[in-house]
Design brief:
mainly alpha, Farnesyl Diphosphate Synthase, globular
């Protein structure tokens, strides 16, 4: 993958400011209950590519939002994502011992602490978005909170995880698999982009519509690429156990379509994602570059 140094520098800057904002928002480990706060920081800080934060900032910049407001949207989504990973790795879910190249939260601490970490991170995400005067228009702020709540719940990420657990050993069609991942993975990715866009004071509905189309396509593409990497990459590269989905007899885009067709689908979704952005030219550069980063990682 050949992305410009300019994009790499931009992405590194966003990742750094996201890390700093998360560090500031998370309770310090020396504040009681110490173990819970230590585990929250362990699960959230110094890990991952911050793709959702990058999406929030790229969409926010496209819609001319202020960076400090995008920061709050970005860290709220990253907290929800971190909580989902903590719960996903637990023995009652996917039972994985490794996450982001280090022991999963329940392995580093214990199951009960990991469960509470997820609960607390979810609550903290909404605490961040509901902070007084984050947005001048209270109704606008409530709409942002509502968007993340829907994306996180039974009609979004949590519902997708429930479908995923129920699908182990089942033979799904491509349509059924897409339905699952629109919820499990795609809902939070879409929310990240839209929260960034809605961080703007003046809303441009045409731009937001373009962001919504982009985010839905790139959310599916993200999962297709994840399935490809689960097949092709090793554990050190992934930072989590390679081949886990196949070993668990879970349906994936690779098992349904085959590796070659899955790669074609990832490219098709990339093309679909950037289509509504073409008329904006250079203004959409970050979004296009980020779509390329998401769909070509590891290839």
């Amino acid at each position: 993958m050949d992305l410009s140094n300019d994009f790499q520098s931009w992405a590194a800057g966003i990742q750094q400011r996201t890390e700093l904002a998360l560090d500031k928002a998370l309770p310090e480990a020396n504040i009681a209950p110490n173990k819970l706060h230590e585990a929250m920081r362990y699960a959230t800080l110094s890990g991952g590519k911050r793709v959702r934060a990058l999406l929030a900032h790229a969409a926010g910049e496209f819609c001319r939002a202020e960076a400090h407001k995008i920061d709050q949207a970005a860290i709220a989504v990253e907290m929800i994502h971190a909580y989902s990973l903590v719960h996903d790795d637990m023995p009652c879910m996917d039972d994985d011992d490794l996450r982001r190249g280090k022991p999963s939260c329940h392995k580093q601490f214990d199951d009960a602490t990991a469960l509470l970490v997820g609960d607390a991170l979810q609550s903290l995400a909404f605490q961040v978005l509901s902070a007084p005067h984050l947005h001048a228009d209270a109704e606008h702020q409530i709409n942002i909170i509502h968007l993340l709540a829907v994306a996180s719940g039974s009609r979004g990420m949590a519902g997708g995880q429930a479908i995923d657990l129920a699908s182990v050993g089942e033979s799904l069609s491509q349509t059924e698999l897409e339905f699952m991942h629109i919820h499990k993975t795609g809902a939070l990715i879409r929310a990240a982009a839209l929260l960034g866009a809605y961080s703007a004071t003046a809303l441009d509905e045409k731009r937001i519509s373009a962001i919504d189309h982009y985010a839905q396509a790139i959310g599916l593409a993200f999962q297709v690429v994840d399935d490809i990497l689960d097949k092709e990459a090793d554990t050190a590269t992934l930072g989590k156990t390679a081949g886990k989905d196949a070993d668990s007899n879970k349906p994936t885009y690779v098992t349904i379509l085959g590796l070659a067709r899955a790669k074609v689908l990832a490219q098709e979704l990339f093309d679909n994602a950037i289509e509504p952005l073409k008329s904006y030219g250079a203004e959409a550069t970050r979004l296009v570059q980020l779509a390329q980063f998401i769909t070509q990682r590891g290839f």
